[in-house]
Amino acid sequence: MLLHIASDGLIAAACFAIPFSIAQFVKSRRDLDSGHRALALLFAAFIGLCGLTHVMGIVTMWQPIYISAGWLKAVTAIASVVTAIALHRLIPRLLAIPSPKALQLEIEARRIIADELDAARAQLALRVDHTEGELRTAVQQQQQSDALLRTIVETAPGLIFPKDLEGRLLLANKATLAVIGKPWVEVERKTDREFLDHPDRGEVIMTRDRAIMAGGVAQELEENAEHPVKGARTWLSTKTPMFDADGLVTGLVGMSFDITEPKQLEARLRQESRLSAMGEMAAALAHELNQPLGSIINYVEGCRILVARESSNSPLLGQFDKAIGEALRAGQIIRHLRSFVSSDDNVRLPEVLPVLVDEACAFSLLGASSPDVALDIRHDGPETKVLVDRIQIEQVIHNLIRNAIEATAHATRPVLQVRTARFSDEMAVISIADNGAGLDPEVATTLFERFVSTKGKRGMGVGLSIGRTIVEAHGGRIWAEPARHGGTVFQLTLPLAASEDGE
User: Fold this and answer.
1) Which of 419, 425, 416 is nearest to 492 (CA)?
2) Residues 280-310: pLDDT tens digits?
3) Contact 443, 383 (CB under 8 A)
4) How many CA atoms lie within 13 A of 150 on its CB side?
5) Residues 229, 208 contacting (CB under 8 angstroms)
């Protein structure tokens, strides 16, 4: 009996201690979900009830309360059944919990993955740093390029003015703003009609710009505009459409250069050419009329003598004297005219030959009929000086360059070669060669004669004759010969200035 009491007592004590331990565990593990927590408390209740049944076994040895013991066992049975069912359902979930070894392997695998992630993160950081460095370098280079472009645009001697499709100004350099006469804040993203003082003039410019953008082809044209300081100016403008990546026109870029002085010089050259042509023709007429006038004087003098022999008081004698006097006066006028045409009184000064030739070539190409001609200029002596009348010699070079451009009109790649060099100790030579069709041998022999032209009805035949007169008046000579690779070479010599001649 004592053995039963002791055994049931110890079992009951253990059964009562276990629920308290389970309760303490559930209380400490707040991360347990509600299902696990409920199962643990149910299991604790089942163990506690089992302890009560053992206590009831001890009590029934002295008190036969078998009904109470039966109900207690029934409750315990119910608790055990519910606990068994819940535990049965929990078994798959408990089996899914990895073992300590599996957990260790998983931890190790995750550590390896973490190390790999750290290495990848470090490599990515290095790549990011490298990319950021490249980006910073690219930004600096872009900033430098932008600054360089801005400097070029701002210091350009001509006008630069890009516009959008609506004609609004996107950029304007200092030269453009100087011509407009307004600061950038007053013209930014405004049209010519809005910022120009004369809206009608702005509308004309915008109409021309729209036509260029619609055509999609760059155009070169002359435009007139008022300068706030210099007054009316003539500008040579090149306007080029802008395209996006899809080939659609987004606006245009305009560049203009002031050609007022070159145009004025060209007008002076034309005036000088006309005057020289008139002088050449006057000289030719003087030469041709001088001999007939001499014959007239002789014939009238003979008639006077015959009439005087018959009657010394004839009224015809006075008329003959007047006719002779007028003929002599005409001869004197002709001699003065010839003296004026061939006079050496023109001012001749030392001029740097390369500079003179470069300017004359530039003026000749201005508005040329063939803008695609390639001009190759080379100077043997950059400081060579000649003693010339600058305007006259520029007129000669201008005429030769224009003739050469017309001669290369049908060439596939028109090329003009201009050379300057010393010809002798006292003379310099200018050579102008083209790659045109060349000279007809029949025309070459009379090329420099008056009224001989290779241009048909378009030419007067006095340009080369005038050029020869000017060159020969300077003490030089001019001639033409076939070029080595086709075309024609015109050469003319001019006297060196005193400092050049004495070297």
Assistant:
1) 419
2) 666 676 667 777 877 888 888 888 888 888 8
3) no
4) 6
5) no
Angle at 123 between CA 119 and CA 126, to 5 degrees: 140
pLDDT in tens, 26-43: 777 777 777 677 777 777
* Exposure on the CB side of residue 193, measured as CA atoms within 13 A: 9
Q: Which residue reads 């001697």 in tokens?
A: 157
Q: Residue with structure tokens 């043997």?
A: 380
Dihedral (CA of 311, 316, 321, 323) sign: negative
Alpha helices in 366-429 (DSSP H): 390-407
Token reading at 390: 């600058």
Measured at the alpha carbon of residue 40, what is the angle toward residues 39 and 44, in degrees to the nearest 5?
Answer: 115
Largest Cα separation within the chain, whole Å, is 211
Residues in the chain: 503
Q: d(Cα 469, Cα 217) in Å, to the nearest integer? A: 45
CA separation, residue 399 to residues 259, 359, 466 (Å) = 20, 13, 10
Instruction: Calculate mean pLDDT across residues 429-441.
Output: 87
Backbone region of residue 439 per phi and psi (left: phi > 0; alpha: psi in -120 to 50; beta: other values): beta
Tell me the β-bridge partners of 145.
none
Closest to 250 measured CA to CA, from 336, 165, 156, 338: 165
Alpha helices in 429-474 (DSSP H): 441-444, 463-473
- pLDDT tens-digit profile of 233-243? 888 999 999 99
Helix 260-310 vs helix 463-473: angle between axes, to the nearest 10 degrees? 90
The string of DSSP codes covering 116-141 is HHHHHHHHHHHHHHHHHHHHHHHHHH
pLDDT digits 0-9 by tens, 116-146: 999 999 999 999 999 999 999 999 998 898 8
Tell me phi and psi for residue 49, to 5 degrees. Answer: -65, -40
CA 349 to chain centre: 42
